[in-house]
């Protein structure tokens, strides 16, 4: 799902997987909801710029413009469609 074929290094999410990743967040919330756990907030990622430095550790980074596109175009609509506010 990342923009390089190496799971042991820092990279970014390949944009062809934006919808899949948004749906993963919905699945996460749904699974907790089934156990009667409610959330009042959600963050897209901890330290989103950390994975932009292509180093020797597994992480994923976001440029601000990419994160904005993903939240507005994919995560927000997926949450709305699933009934989350």
Notes on the protein architecture:
- The longest helix has 18 residues.
- The chain has one domain.
- A two-stranded parallel sheet has the order 1-2.
- The chain has two helices and two strands, in the order βαβα.
- 41% of the residues lie in helices and 7% in strands.
- The radius of gyration is 14 Å and the shape is globular.
- With 85 residues, it is mainly alpha-helical.
Entry keywords:
85 residues, mainly alpha, two-stranded parallel ribbon, 2 helices, 7% strand, globular
Number of strands: 2
The biggest beta sheet, please?
A: 2 strands, parallel
Question: Which structural class should the secondary elements be placed in?
Answer: mainly alpha
Strand order within the widest sheet? 1-2
- Rg measurement, Å: 14 Å
The global form is globular
Q: N-to-C SSE series?
A: EHEH
How many domain regions?
1
**How many helices?**
2
Mean pLDDT: 87
Estimate the strand proportion.
5-15%
- Uncertain regions: pLDDT < 50 for 5+ in a row? none
Give the CA-CA distance, first to last residue. 27 Å
Helix content: 40-55%
Blueprint (SSEs and pairs):
Layout: E1 10-12, H1 18-34, E2 59-61, H2 64-81
Parallel strand pairs: 1-2
